[in-house]
Amino acid sequence: MLELLHNMDWVLPLRSPALTQVANGFTWLGYATFILFALPIGYWVWNKGTFFRLLVLIAVTAWLNALLKDIFQDPRPPLELRLDDRVGDSYGLPSGHAQIAVVMWLWLAYEVRRAWFWVVCALICLGVCLSRLYLAAHDVEDVLVGALLGGATLLLFARVKDWAFWREANLGWPLGAALLVTAASLALWPGQAPDYVPLLAGQLVGVSLGLRLEQRTLGFGIAVPAWRRLLAGVLGAVGFVLLQKLLKLLGANLELPPLYWQGLRGLLMGLFVTLLMPWLLVKARLLSARQREPVAVADVAGA
């Protein structure tokens, strides 16, 4: 059994140039480059409530994944077997791709609640998990544990009935919780915490604060023609790319300690997604204002 969980020699005969391209495509869906790009666009032009919840959920599960990786310190498959050179020297157990894929795609399916959408999301989730094995970035144990943790996280969050807490409770609650978890993580983390731990905390604070301010001052909605939503998504994507370039330039000039800078960077990204870009898109008349969408599980795509 242990041999089956850890030995990856079986994957070598399955490889071909075409399958490698497919695997790289699926595995890209699990990297931050895609996730940090896709979630804001969904927030702006698909469903604000659904994608706000996803932002929170993915931040929490990514923090948990990073903590467990550094606790277990389980090595990845041998370097000579790997076809993914983006993993660096990080540990393998649990697989972040598998964990986040289960959380992201199955939560979307849970919110949309359409049979065909469940099938599509399940296939994407399976493709991401299998791609990590094909590329030998993880062994079977890594992927299984990551998927199970993602499923457990989903079950836990599915029991949260009142997401309005995030926009109605005193802002000190999410702010204090994020700061407390960050401080405890940095103090008790086994070894040095990854720099994306304060980034995730900053994002949670930023999206919570931005959502609160946006709901009270703007209340944007998507009750506009489809071509406007499409254009809003394109402009939002361009704006997000420009934001990353601006943050890179700002980080080089501020010369803050890395952990402080990552926290500030996450805060600015959260505010951009939930406050600044919606305001710009409403001012450009691509989205509507004063159409408040309650942050509740009953939201469905396009509601």
What does this structure look like?
The protein has 303 residues and is an all-alpha fold. The protein has one domain (15-283). 69% of the residues lie in helices and 0% in strands. The chain has twelve helices and no strands. The protein has helices at residues 2-6, 17-28, 32-45, 48-72, 96-112, 115-134, 140-158, 165-168, 172-188, 196-217, 226-254, 258-283. The protein is globular, with a radius of gyration of 20 Å. Its EC number is 3.6.1.27. Keywords: Membrane, Transmembrane, Transmembrane helix. It catalyses: di-trans,octa-cis-undecaprenyl diphosphate + H2O = di-trans,octa-cis-undecaprenyl phosphate + phosphate + H(+). It comes from Pseudomonas cavernae. This is undecaprenyl-diphosphate phosphatase.
Distance between the termini: 48 Å
Give the helix level as a range of percent.
Answer: 55-70%
What overall form do the CA principal axes indicate? Answer: globular
| Element order: H for helix, E for strand | HHHHHHHHHHHH
Catalytic activity: di-trans,octa-cis-undecaprenyl diphosphate + H2O = di-trans,octa-cis-undecaprenyl phosphate + phosphate + H(+)
Keywords: Membrane, Transmembrane, Transmembrane helix
EC number: 3.6.1.27
InterPro entries: PAP2/HPO, PAP2/HPO_sf
Which tags fit this structure?
about 300 residues, 12 helices, undecaprenyl-diphosphate phosphatase, about 70% helix, undecaprenyl-diphosphatase activity
